[in-house]
Amino acid sequence: MNISQAVALRIKQLLKEKNMSQYKLEHKACLSHETVKSIMKGKAKGVNLKTVIAIADGFEMTIRDFLDSDLFLYQNLEI
């Protein structure tokens, strides 16, 4: 899987875990609906670090905690 797909899966996991809507995440992360929708639908060509930091902030967690998932292990990603 590519990094954008891993980010989308991680977002799905955290939304469920935190019982949060995508809309609430967008609001708390100060990201547009189109940006998050693009990531979630797999249409984003890539996700930059600034966006990942904003997403982590939206979940009220550090970037380290956001990336602390087997989804982001080197062997699980197409680099």
Based on the model shown, name its key terms.
434 Repressor (Amino-terminal Domain); 5 helices; about 80 residues; mainly alpha
Can you describe what's shown?
The chain contains 5 helices and no strands. The chain is mostly helical and 79 residues long. It has a single domain (3-71), classed as lambda repressor-like DNA-binding domains (434 Repressor (Amino-terminal Domain), Orthogonal Bundle). The chain starts with a helix and ends in a 12-residue tail after the last helix. 16% of the residues are buried.
Mean pLDDT across the residues is 95
Q: What is the helical fraction, as a range of percent? A: 55-70%
Give, in order, the helices and strands: HHHHH
What structural class should be given to the helix and strand makeup? mainly alpha
Distance between the termini: 9 Å
